[in-house]
Structure formats: structure tokens, C-alpha cells
UniProtKB/TrEMBL annotation:
InterPro entries: DHC (IPR026983), Dynein_heavy_tail (IPR013594). GO terms for biological process: microtubule-based movement. This is DYH5 protein. One of its GO terms (cellular component) is axonemal dynein complex. Pfam families: DHC_N1. GO terms for molecular function: dynein intermediate chain binding; dynein light intermediate chain binding. It comes from the Eukaryota. Residues 5-167 form the Dynein heavy chain tail domain. The gene is Dnah5_1.
């Protein structure tokens, strides 16, 4: 029972840390007003990396052994652990999926940032078709919040490109 108590303490500490990571991941991002769409991709890549690392740790043999011992001892802490494990898995899947979809836009980020306003406009129909495809097919990124954030960043980039063009001209 002493070993079980120590292991339960470890699980409680890990659970608290995992909850903190989940809470922080759900907080509203603070970004500059003129940030472009590549920042959206970077955000989700960072988030994917964080959650994948956390999943790797949770799936490690050390943690699996501790969970097995606590299962054998019929520990009550396992219910919330399994719940957190599920939430981390969902968050990791969401980040991975969003990165996959946002990468389809990556080919537009260069032309949006470096082209003249006229050449930039040639890419807009394809860009919007790709955004529409993401909205229609992504299981996670098709929310109003995600689309608004993405379209705002695309617009920011277009405005920055036009400002740069005007200042150079």
C-alpha cells in the first residue's frame, strides 16, 4: 500500500501538470495585429510537437508499468488519468490534423508575402478554394473561430504586401 500511495501521488502530480498544459493550450492566443498566415501554421506545429512529446511520455514503458501496478491495486486515480490521456490524445490529433491541412496553404504564403499586388491577386482564387476545402473537410479546423483567425491572417499578409509595394514604389 505504501508503494501504491507513492505511485498515486506521482499520477496526481502528472495529472495536475497535464491539466495545466491543456488549460494553457485552450487560452486565447495573443498575437500582433499584423501577423500573417504562416504564424497559424507555426502555432499548430508547436502545439503538435508539445502534445506528441506528452503522448510519448504517457505511452512510455515507465508510465505503463506504473499504470499496470495501479490497475492491479484498483486505484481510484486511474479514472481521471484515463480521462486526461483521452484529452491529450484528442488535442494531439487535432494539432496533427490542423498542421496537415494548413500545410496545403503553405505554397501560397510566399506569393502572398513577396508578390506585387497584381501577381498576389492571381493566387487568391486558388487560395480561397484551398481554404474552402479545409473548411469542408477538416474535422477540427472547420470552426468559425479557426476560419476567422486564418482569414484575418491572410488579409493581414495581403495588406502588409500592399504596404511594402507602395513604400518601395
Amino acid at each position: 500500500t505504501e508503494i501504491t500511495e507513492k505511485l498515486e501521488e506521482a499520477i496526481m502530480i502528472w495529472s495536475k501538470q497535464i491539466r495545466q498544459v491543456l488549460v494553457e493550450s485552450e487560452q486565447v492566443r495573443r498575437e500582433a495585429d499584423d501577423v500573417g498566415p504562416s504564424a497559424e501554421l507555426e502555432h499548430w506545429k508547436t502545439r503538435m510537437s508539445s502534445f506528441n512529446s506528452l503522448l510519448d511520455e504517457i505511452k512510455s514503458s515507465r508510465v505503463k508499468k506504473i499504470i499496470s501496478i495501479l490497475q492491479a491495486a484498483r486505484s481510484k486515480t486511474l479514472k481521471q488519468w484515463k480521462e486526461l490521456d483521452g484529452k491529450i490524445t484528442i488535442a494531439a490529433n487535432e494539432a496533427k490534423d490542423n498542421v496537415k491541412y494548413l500545410y496545403t496553404l503553405d505554397k501560397f504564403f510566399g506569393p502572398l508575402a513577396k508578390a506585387s499586388p497584381i501577381t498576389m491577386m492571381e493566387h487568391v482564387p486558388s487560395l480561397m478554394n484551398t481554404v474552402c476545402m479545409i473548411y469542408c473537410t477538416s474535422p477540427y479546423y472547420n470552426t468559425s473561430e479557426c476560419m476567422t483567425s486564418l482569414l484575418l491572417k491572410i488579409t493581414n499578409q495581403m495588406i502588409n504586401t500592399c504596404k511594402t509595394y507602395l513604400c518601395e514604389g
